[in-house]
Amino acid sequence: MPAPGAKPITDEEGPLFHLLRQVDLAPEASQRDIASAIGVSLGRLNAQLRAAAEAGFIKVSERVGPDRRQRFAYTLTSRGAAEKARLTDRFLARKFLEYQALHAELTGTGSPYVPSTNRTSLMQNYLAPIPELFVSYDSAQKLKVEAAELTSHDLTPRQICDLELLMNGGFYPLKGFLSEADYDGVVDDMRLADGTLWPMPITLDVKEDFADKIEIGQDIALRDQEGVILATMTVTDKWEPNKAKEAEKVFGADDDAHPAVNYLHNTAGKIYLGGPVTGIQQPVHYDFRARRDTPNELRAYFRKLGWRKVVAFQTRNPLHRAHQELTFRAARESQANLLIHPVVGMTKPGDVDHFTRVRCYEAVLDKYPASTTTMSLLPLAMRMAGPREAVWHGLIRKNYGVTHFIVGRDHAGPGKNSAGEDFYGPYDAQELFKQHEEEMGIEMVPFKHMVYVEERAQYEPNDEILDKDKVTILNISGTELRRRLQEGLEIPEWFSFPEVVSELRRTKPPRSKQGFTVFFTGFSGSGKSTIANALMTKLMEMGGRPVTLLDGDIVRKNLSSELGFSKEHRDLNIRRIGYVASEITKNGGIAICAPIAPYATTRRAVREDIEQFGAFIEVHVATTIEECERRDRKGLYKLAREGKIKEFTGISDPYDVPANPELRVETEGTDVDNCAHQVILKLESMGLIAGH
Description:
The protein is an alpha/beta fold. The protein has 25 helices and 22 strands. α21 packs parallel to α22 (600-611).
């Protein structure tokens, strides 16, 4: 299946394509074997090999061995693999045109088949595997050795998700991370430079110091967080994007309350690299391996079972009874089989972890008919981009062989913006998907708001209930469900399955039994450490959970002794504190942190890390700079005023006052015990500790 808009391969390109393909398939073959396989003379082959080597497509090396007839070995380079992938599309385009011409000649009529650039029918979905970016196993082993000498980039978790879907065809027709021209087209018009529909920028963001070392045309190795080489990339583009524009165009607002916009501004690297990718191996997953399928593996499964219609259900939340009824209805109305296709990459901060979610899915999978339902996991890093994300999800599912896709109400919405309003309208995603449905070649099944009708003991679409004034309509929102879980309250069987509730309670016990973090922030000398110590003592007196104090001075001595006081080093120090606190919280303990933590973006990042596992309570110790200076026993403020201490918070370095902390305490005229008691009362009101 060629890429949309692929030009047919020319007679001049054909020999190079066959050569690269053969070297990839049989890198150990002799010249004679290669010549025989591609149907050329030895003399012609030598000329082709020299030209390919000069172009950087293959590497020629001496072969060690007694047989002097096999003196040389030929290895496909990363650049050669990228060229082979490009030529493969063009080769397939030519073959489709030849087929059409042959059909017309044999029948004496024009071909009934549409041109390959518009082919969106069963031929794409079922009769042809989707192109991948991996080289053959033998070529991969040689490419690993070559790649070990290249400059390496250690991928972030989000980039690993993106790379996996690039390599296995989930992001087809992309051949790598977007070039600047493709990026501009996607941001402005949801289209690649060649006009192909693609709504989401897939970019390789890197830090400035790394980008400075990279030249255009250079090959780099892409490694996972363990240092394993997953792929190589030929850098064709390097640029500094307008991130504010990207936020406005892609996510609808340049608002840090949106998790993807926050990532864009505060986590992602400043520079983007673009270029084709050559896949060496897939990322290794040790969890739920039997549930992880590539697009081609799912396509083969559907072909084997004869599934010609498949409706996919996108989910990042556990399945409840309303979801079950919805999926049943969607499959029935579409006359299709059902693919439950949950996302197990990065989702919205604060979501239930994917391990728990998958266990919930598996617990209720037997409630679906086994002959018409299957489940597979999607390693996607969601952006929560609402309408654009819905179109993106549809294109991805089409690559997985799906014909119908359920688009939810406020599909992939991130929640509220900084003004407290929803980022997207409830049906914006469905409307945008509908606009592009025909071009995408996948049908939308709109998500219906399902509610429980008590008198009929069944779920029904809310807008189809004609006797609302005569029946009792029940519903539990996501917020209400979380509240009931946190407080250990009953969750009725009409809402969810006992098996799902049991799994959720294992992972999310009542708040009074969860770990949490109390994070004090304020000027030096504000009283943070003193209040933190008092709070630790009070919590230890209560008992029930281990309590750990991560005071700024203690952490500096034991975890960050090599760090200075630059912004970069301060950020790193706070991130270390946040990491330790997240581990304590995850394991059911109480972490009390008392650094200065002057920067709002860093505090937010720590909050997101910790809220994956438990509550985060930010306490702003709002002592004025004048009072802190008056209390200054160490003479630090005096030295800062004299310029002898650089980058001192409140004097020569800014302090971002928390806008919405869980608690703000005043220490002027208030004793320490009272301040600590205010924190205790706050923890009680949040259900984190039992009231007296």
